Amino acid sequence: MTITNMEDLKKRKLEETVGNGEFSSVEHLRSLLEPLPKPQLVDLLARLGSQYPSIAEEIKSVASADPVNRKLFVRGLAWNTTSETLCATFSVHGEIEEGAVIYDKTTGKSRGYGFITYKHMESTKAALKAPSKIIEGRMAVCNLACEGLSGSSTTPDLAQRKLYIGGLSPDITSEMLLNFFGRYGDIEEGSVAYDKDTNESRGFGFVTYTTVEATKKAIDDPDKTFGGRNIIVKLADSHRNKMMQAQVPPAIPSMPYPVAAAGYPQPGKPHGGVAPVGYAYPPQALASYHASYPSLTSAHASYASQPQIPHPHQVIGKKDAPGLHLITPTGMGGYPYYMAKQ
Question: Which parts of the sequence belong to the RRM domain (predicted)?
């Protein structure tokens, strides 16, 4: 019996079932399916799709209708990679519905990443089986666009899988870098860092392995010579932390606040009550001195009612003018009152 005859037989049986009133309504089937867990539903649809081609086509149509399942984010592109080159690279996996490199609106230069949308979800899955691709000498990496810019590479052990490679010769390309470090294990992504304006090497690069073991092999290898130079191989995370620490300005050492000579009051602070060297006036005398002037108004009124006393400079050159005696303010320990220089 041919496949066509089998399909006709199944169709007739289905029609007979409907005619006998044995066919369940959509509402009834939905009520039966809703309590089922997702894995069981997936298994059920998979078995039905494998038995009935029409159901398989329906499943494919529904799955491919949502562009979320067909759109890829591609990062790590060379600055001179065009949209045409990007599409040509990914067209090997299937028909492309849309593809483009993203450019900066202000400068008009590539931002180093782009997007690919396939017509069918199967093409997207095929591309994801080999997410790393060499495009114009640089390793680009793709992941589903819905996963974000970081994609599947953002895993808890990423910090232990990503290496910083410093001291590279300007002649070293990304392809040479990947070939050299590929001896330690499978590489997920990697590239030489290039200047956006000149497209020249900046003398360092990054390599991310698929396993932590491969990263350790690359670090532990005593031979650190590449391209005729001694290179630096270390975890990229430790290098980033070191660079961040170098950019932070050193802490300003704390300087002791200069302590004024004892006995001289500081602005906004109460008088310490310690007499300056050579001046032995007691604190209680000073307190009584200030207490005699509780406010500016009362002080002025009290001062105005007293007789005027000539200042000592008025009697310079005279020992003691008749009827004049040097008056010492109360509580100043016998010393004349001097005005501070302004």
Answer: 70-161, 161-238
Structure pTM?
Answer: 0.52
In this structure, are residues 94 and 123 in contact, taking their beta carbons and an 8 Å threshold?
yes
Q: Using CA atoms, how far apart are residues 253 and 45, in angstroms rounded to an integer? A: 70
What is the DSSP secondary-structure string of 212-241? HHHHHHHHH-S--EETTEE-EEEEHHHHHH
Pairwise pLDDT comparison (70 vs 270), residue with the higher score: 70
Whether the pLDDT of residue 324 is over 70: the answer is no
Task: Please choose, from the candidates 103, 99, 101, 107, the residue with its C-alpha nearest in 3D space to the C-alpha of residue 124.
Answer: 99
Residues 67-151, CATH architecture: 2-Layer Sandwich (3.30)
Averaged pLDDT for residues 299-314: 50
Contact 115, 61 (CB under 8 A): no
pLDDT over 80 at 312, yes or no: no
Which candidate, 61, 85, 57, 87, places its Cα nearest to that of 72?
87
Q: In CATH, what is the architecture of 158-245?
A: 2-Layer Sandwich (3.30)
C-alpha closest to that of 117 among 59, 72, 159, 148: 72
φ, ψ of residue 293 in degrees (nearest 5): -125, 80
Tokens 């390309």 belong to residue: 173
Domain ranges of the chain: 67-151, 158-245
Structure tokens at 5: 């005859």
